[in-house]
Amino acid sequence: MAKARRFQVERAAKAGPGAATLNARAEGRFLEEAAAMDQTGHTLLTRAAEAAGLTARGWTRTLRLARATADLDGSDQVRRVHVAEAVVYRRVGTLEPTA
Questions:
Q1: Distance CA 98, CA 26 (A)
Q2: How far apart are CA 92 and CA 14, in angstroms?
Q3: Which of 38, 56, 58, 97 makes the best surface tag, with the fewest CB within 10 Å?
Q4: Which residue has the higher pLDDT, 69 or 93?
């Protein structure tokens, strides 16, 4: 966990002043660059977004989570496996409890 946090801090330092230190606060161009996905990851997120009707906000939140998952994995790039894990976590978090 500390190693993942260190990755986030180092990435923000390289980006310069004003860059979000935490993935949860990353946005805009900084988020796009920090969470650049491989092609299969991008395809998966696009399909999941279409299937679930993700809003732009939902896409951004899922992307932030995928970046955090990649950091925990020690990966510089967000890969399909990280996107898949983020999609599952986001989906589980939105399920309504059964009565």
A1: 34
A2: 34
A3: 97
A4: 69
CA distance 40 to 87: 14
Residues 35, 7: Cα–Cα separation, whole Å: 12
Query: Chain-centre distance of CA 65, in angstroms?
Result: 3
- pLDDT single digits (tens) 30-74: 999 999 999 999 999 999 999 888 889 999 999 999 999 999 999
- For 77, other C-beta atoms within 10 Å of its C-beta total 12
Place of tokens 């059964």: 98
For residues 30-60, one letter each, b for 16 or more C-beta atoms within 10 angstroms of the residue's C-beta and e for the rest, the string is: bbeebbebeeebeebbeebbeeeebeeeeeb
- Phi, psi values for residue 36, rounded to 5°: -60, 125
